């Protein structure tokens, strides 16, 4: 299920039933998480496909701005399909900078559609022409979250290099890092963390990136997150921690449960590890060196401050 389909499902629940976020909340728990909750919501929404079809072909009430609306939808469709030549033509003919950042009724912009479908060159083109990389949809989604949800690391890197904020979160509290961890994209998660993504961030329901990694049984991802300060004691709205998630999944009779048992045991064994240097096995050489230099400098300064005033002078 693409990010676009997931978000349409949530919005349909919200628009057609009223207060749909409350209905969705009843589906969300730490065992299934947001992704499965959205998938379940999508399954019983009869009107979603019809609504999306109407939006896609541009069937709208005609008005004085109907031509502009049709052009906007055509731009979004071209970005969804990666038709770069057509996109350039439309942008040149539009003649106004704001055209590139106009959205569909769900708040999705051209760059979001390009990210959802993995069109790197289209994303690069849109950025060069002034697309807003931190623009949000109705649910607070950004292009970076969309790219990370599918593991499009090069697109995510391009967005970050051009000002995408790794710390932004959607209305649900979910971040680009949570999306990457939910998909098991280790290298994408590492890149986000290296650029300052908060490993300890919690969603409105208490979900964390570490919990997502534990549920997946991804040992390397769990260790990486812990090396960046992920909170092992964080609890979701049911009072469960990442260790609880790993233990629960470890009880299932499936091959992947070996990894869940390993994660639960490792989290317990290393629960007193409080600094990144405890996690040398997952640190890059550059990061380990930088951390050691910082620790050494801090130690020297502390020792100098402890000296008597005369000796210090």
TrEMBL record:
It comes from the Eukaryota. ANK repeats lie at residues 106-138, 139-171, 172-204, 205-237. Gene3D superfamilies: Ankyrin repeat-containing domain. It comes from Chrysochromulina tobinii. Pfam families: Ank_2 (PF12796), Ank_4 (PF13637). The keyword Repeat applies. Keywords: ANK repeat, Repeat. InterPro entries: Ankyrin_rpt, Ankyrin_rpt-contain_sf. This is Ankyrin repeat-containing protein. Signal peptide: none annotated.
